[in-house]
Here is the input.
Amino acid sequence: MPAPDRTARSLVTDVVGLYIRPLDGWIAVADLLTLLEPLGVEHAAARTAISRMVKDGLLTRTVRGGQSGYALSSRALPSMERADRRILGYVRAARGDRWLLASYSIPESERRLRDRLRRTLVREGFGTSTRGVWILPLHHRDDAMATLEEEGFGGMIDFFEADPLTDDADLVARAWDLPRLARGAARLAATVDALIARWPDDRTDDRAAFVDYTSVVDLWRPLAFHDPGLPGVYLGHRHPIEDSFATARHRLEKAAHRHVGSVTGVEFTGSK
Here is the structure.
């Protein structure tokens, strides 16, 4: 199940994040292109996406054993570890849990900086119902603050921890577009459940498992950030998407790892 609606950069990020770290943080160019090909990423698009990641300081070009390849930079590791916790270790808050509040004041004369900060907050899953005040489930505190510090905003934001003194349902409804999140989760759950149905326990196809698992992660990743684990009661979840993802991971991850090991010739021990 390649993910044609996703970009080459997104799929390269998935492959790098899911599989290269356990390979001692390095992969040969030829092996990376081989892994990307069944995902629908042509070599030219892959090379362009990889070059951009090198330019952004996430990958470095290195040679090992006479082979050209790419290594993860020290800058990339913390952000990928945070992404792991959000995507693979997804946690949903309970009703009445505490919130992280972020407040800032940036003058109109620095509109570009303010807009960049807002984009970063949205990307991290913050919601807002009051100008200049953003909220996020408290269990994301450390990762969210680390990301904002890494992006250069650490000294511009005041953070607070808050307890809801009244029912926070109205606050959540104002801060996030709950109907949109619920629709997205329902569509994705249906897609993932249909995929899982094609994988009976006796099916063995490591290459296909790699394609399906990587594609599922690629589809799940944006929603895991857009919905930062809001209490399910506010979303009307009948079948939480995180349950569907967990089932797909249980069924496909080990076979996907075996495929990566067969391509790279390195024993794959799983995510670090």
Summary: Residues 108 and 193 are 47 Å apart (CA to CA). The first strand starts at residue 26 and ends at 28. The chain has a mean pLDDT of 90.
